Amino acid sequence: MEYIKKSTNIKTETSVATEQTVKDVIKDIQLNGDEAIHKYEKKFGNNDRTSLRLSEEEIESAIASLTDEQKSLIDNVVERVSNFAKAQLDCLLPLDRDFGDGIRLGHKLIPVETVGTYVPGGRFPLLSSGVMVAAPAKVAGVKRIIACSPANYNGSIHPAIIYGLKQSGVTEIFAIGGAQAIAAMAYGSESVPQVDVISGPGNRFVAEAKRQVFGEVGIDLVAGPSEVVVFADEFSKPDLIAADLLAQAEHDPNARAILIITSKELGENTMLEVEKLLEQFDENSPAHESWNKMGEIIVVDSIQEGIEVCNEFAGEHLHLHLKETEEAVEKIHNYGSLFIGENSSVVFSDKVSGTNHTLPTNRGGRYTGGLWVGSYVKVATFQEITGPGVNTLATHASRQSEMEGLEGHHLSAFKRKAQAEFSK
Asked: Which Gene3D superfamilies match (predicted)?
C-alpha cells in the first residue's frame, strides 16, 4: 500500500470546548425553556424572531414563492424516498408463534409516537435532507413529526425545505438551529414539544448535542462531515472519479474524499483531474480546503488488498469504480451505503434515488447502517404462558432462582407451578 496523497489534518474527536458549550446550552434550556432558546438563537444564529414556530401563514407564503417545477422536483424526492421506506417496512414482519405447548411468544412492530427531525441550514439549502429524515417516519406510522432548522433564509427557513417537510408529513416547523434545537426537542419547552426520537444530520454542535441527550431520547446516529471512499481499478476513468470525490468534498471543509486504486498511474492522473476541476470551483467552495487537507489517494497491490483497506475505512459512502464488482460486493462489509459501478453516483442517493443519505461516519459503518424506516419502529416482544407452558417454565425458573439465591424470583415462579399442578 502506498500513499500518493495523504491527509494532513484528520480530527474526529469532539473538542473539549465544543463539548462544554453544548453541555451549557442543554442545561440552560432544560432550566429556562424558550427564554434560553431565544438567547442562543440570537447568539449563534443572529435570529431574533419573536415566534420560534412557523405560522401556517408563513408556511403558505413560503410555499407560494416556489415554482411548479421546484415543487415537482421535491414531490419526486418525497415519492421515491417514501416508496423505498415502504419497501423496507414491508420486510419487517410481526411475530406470533408457539414455542412449546402453552408457550406463545412474539413481537409487535410499534411506531414511536413523536419524532423530532433536524434539517441543517449550512452553506447550501439541502432540499432532500428534510425529506430523508421525515418521510420514513411518516411511512413508519409516527403520529407526530416536528422539524427544526436554522432561520438563515430571510429570517426564516428556505421555502423549498419548508415544502419538502410539509409534503413528508411534518406538522410543526420551528426556526431553531444548532445544539439549542436538539436540546429543545429532547427536553421540550413552552413552544417546542418533547420528542421520543431525534434524527437528522448537522454540524459538530448538533452531533455533540445528540450524543449528550441520547438516553433521554433516542437518536438515529451521531454523524460527522461527509465521507466518500472510491475503490477503483486500472480500467477506471479519472475524470469520473475526480468528479465523485469533489461532489462530497464540497459539503464541508472537513469532508473526507478518499481514493483507493490498483493503478499508481491512474491515481496520479486522477489527482491531476481533481486539481484541474477545482480551478472551476468557486474560490469559497469548501471543496478546496477539504481536498487539500483531507483528501487521500492510496495505491493498493491488488483487489484483495483494496477490499481490506475499504473494510478498515468503513466509509460513509463506498463507490465501486471496478470493472468486476462481484468480489468486492461479496467481501466488503463495512460502509454506510454501497454504490455499485461507476455510474451509480453518490449524488443520486444524496438527491433522489430513494435510499437515505443520513449515514454513519468515523468508521461507524463497522457497527451500524444509516437512518431507515426501522429507526422509527420499536420491535417489542410479548409472551403469553398458559396451560402446560406454565408448569414447564415455572419448574425451570424456580430451580434456577434457587441456585441463584433469588428468593423473590423463586417465589413468583413456584406459586405459578403450584397453581398449575393444583388445576390439573
From this structure: 1.20.5.1300, Nitrogenase molybdenum iron protein domain
Written as nine digits, the cell of 292 is: 487539500
Domains 16-92+113-220 and 225-370 share a fold: yes
Distance (Å, rounded) from C-alpha 129 to C-alpha 134? Answer: 9
Residue keyed to cell 421525515: 134
Per the annotation, the verdict on 409 as an active-site residue is no
Residues 38, 158, 317, 410: which is the catalytic one?
317
Q: What is the DSSP string of 74-140?
A: HHHHHHHHHHHHHHHHHH---EEEESSTTEEEEEEEEE-SEEEEE---SSS--TTHHHHHHHHHHHH
Domain chopping of the chain, boundaries: 16-92+113-220, 225-370, 387-422
pLDDT of residue 420: 56
pLDDT digits (tens, 9 = 90+) for 103-137: 999 999 999 999 999 999 866 677 899 999 999 99
The Cα–Cα gap between 259 and 212 comes to 33
- Among 208, 227, 296, 316, the one annotated catalytic: 316
- Comparing C-alpha atoms, which of 202, 131, 136 is closest to residue 167? 131
Domain 16-92+113-220 bears CATH identifier 3.40.50.880: no
The DSSP symbol for 341 reads S
- Cα 326–274–207 angle (5° rounding)? 75
pLDDT in tens, 308-357: 999 999 999 999 999 999 999 999 999 999 999 999 999 999 999 999 99
The CA-based angle 1-369-194, given to 5 degrees, is: 135
With left for phi above 0 and alpha for psi between -120 and 50, is residue 177 left, alpha or beta? Answer: beta
